[in-house]
Design brief:
It is a single chain. The chain is mainly beta and about 230 residues long. It has one domain. Helices cover about 10% and strands about 45% of the residues. The protein contains 3 helices and 13 strands; from the N terminus they run ββαββαβββββββαββ. It has helices spanning about 30-35, 65-70, 190-195; strands spanning about 10-15, 15-30, 45-55, 55-60, 80, 85, 105-110, 120-125, 130-140, 145-155, 165-185, 205-215, 220-225. The strands form 2 sheets. Strands 1, 2, 3, 6, 7, 8, 9, 10, 11, 12 and 13 form an 11-stranded mixed β-sheet that branches. The chain has a two-stranded antiparallel sheet with strand order 4-5. It is elongated. The chain starts with 9 loop residues before the first strand and ends in a 5-residue tail after the last strand.
């Protein structure tokens, strides 16, 4: 297991600690027609996404003196079981052609959005709320897994202690899950490879899934790719 010291695959939110259920990152491409249908830029787009799902844990906060006095003798402290999720909703752009080159990169957000208008992320605890600042470090790679540190602040809106700008930190293995391509206009794999050379090298990948479905304007296509050589 990758490690840089300390316990791995943990998520901390304020004083609370959660075990990690699953952590992945991958790439996603849309052709210009799909981008228009999604009411985005109307241009070809490629973004990277990271998603970290936590195991269920008890959301317990310390009661102040007045709250403790108000408890009846047989009354239990109220808590909720939650499964936090830390993720990027709209993704981010990094200038790399190979997925392996993300090793060693550090991405920083001083506020909710960076200079490119990319969000710092989203944290789900009780609702989907904004990550208000953060840093993501891809420290080192082992096959298709990366040791990642993601630290920052996020809104929770639970109480005074867990309200706005609550500090969080994640350290653990994040698995590269591959790349997906969503196309309303591009119809062949050869055409897709040519278009995607502006973003990544598809020769690094093998196609593991291909499907089509009807839309109002014709046929939409989906491809999914996984690296051919994850150990090199």
């Amino acid at each position: 297991m990758l490690s840089c010291g300390g316990k791995i695959n943990m998520f901390k939110l304020g004083k609370l600690t959660f075990d990690v259920e699953n952590a992945t990152f991958g790439g996603s491409f849309m052709d210009s027609a799909m981008s228009r249908r999604m009411q985005s830029t109307g241009k070809e787009e490629f973004h990277w996404f990271i998603e970290i799902d936590m195991k269920a844990g008890d959301f317990v906060t310390e009661l102040d003196e007045e709250e403790l006095k108000d408890l009846e003798d047989d009354e239990e402290i109220f808590y909720e079981s939650v499964s936090p999720r830390l993720y990027h909703n709209n993704g981010f752009i990094v200038n790399i052609k190979s997925w392996k080159d993300i090793e060693g990169l550090s991405l920083k957000w001083d506020s909710q959005y960076n200079a490119n208008g990319e969000e710092a992320g989203t944290l789900y605890v009780f609702e989907h709320e904004d990550v208000t600042s953060g840093t993501i470090k891809f420290l080192k790679r082992n096959a298709n897994k990366f040791l990642v540190q993601w630290t920052g602040n996020a809104n929770v809106y639970w109480n005074d202690e867990y309200g706005e700008d609550v500090p969080f930190s994640f350290e653990g293995e994040v698995e590269f899950s591959g790349v997906s391509a969503y196309c309303d206009e591009i119809s062949t794999l050869d055409e897709l490879k040519i278009v995607m050379t502006d973003f990544i090298n598809l020769d690094e990948y093998k196609c593991i899934f291909n499907d089509t479905h009807k839309i109002e304007t014709g046929i939409s296509r989906v491809w999914r790719f996984f690296p051919q050589n994850i150990d090199k």
